[in-house]
Please model this.
Amino acid sequence: MQYASRREARAAEAALAAVQVGTEVAVVAATSHELVAVEPEVIAAPVAEQAVSEAATIPAPPASLSVSIESHPVVPPRARAPRAAAARPVARAAASTSSSSQHRKNPLSVLATMAVVGGLFAVAGLPAYAVSTTDPVTQAAPAALGAAQSVAVTSNITSETPIRDLFTATTPEDLAESNADAVRAAANEAYLASGARELGDDYPWPFELTDDQGGGLSPLNYYYRECVDFVAWRLNRDAGSYSAPFKYVWSNLTPNGGDGSQWMSNWIALGRTVSSTPIAGSVAYTGANHVAYVKSANADGTVTLEEYNWIPGAYSTRTIPASSVVAFLYPPG
Model:
């Protein structure tokens, strides 16, 4: 095609380039992941209108000018440079349009992306020990279980006082008592094996700790398993006093001193009978800080004695000449 002037040729070429660029943009947009359809006419229309406007301002050629249209479709070389120059602003406009189209994301796609990202952050923030809200037994949520249950609390309900004395610390006193119990158990076992009961011993406390073992005073106020405590028990038994309050105790039997060496002096001081003739039930003061109970006065001039602590802490009997005894203390009247 032959144009009347260069300006008209440039305008026609610009319109043709706009149409071609619009078509290319539409094809690119259709193949993108956003699947946005762009009509070629939408992009090419402003360019075409601009070209038509410019063509309208071109003055009409003189009547003598003849225009011939050739069938050769090739554009002269000089006309190709303006076409490329005119295509660049159109390409930039198409690229700008495509870029703005890419920036205008689908709102639903944006919301979906935000939801996914928020979910990832929420999962990352969950603790490793998160507990399932589903009951493993009933396979039901707690809310559903709570809706199906009801609890009624009566007004007369009472709280149970906690027991706090189940466990106690061992004190030194407790430990000492525990050790004492062990000694008592051992002494009682030895006493039963000795056969003292079969020999006639009736002393009530044969297993209690002696003074040397850390024991204390008996109900008669003499030390357990000493000779004086055994003799005081026998005097109470003969008087018919078998339990507290006993008839004879340290305070009225030997108030001037309870040691074995002091018994005869107490008898003399209290005006009781002191003799060299033995009788059953009397107290044999043998000297050497010891007293015994006279079980019998024998016709052969001997006496049979029952005593504690002649053998340390134990009951025993022996028969000795009456003449070997320092004095016989008769029972209080």
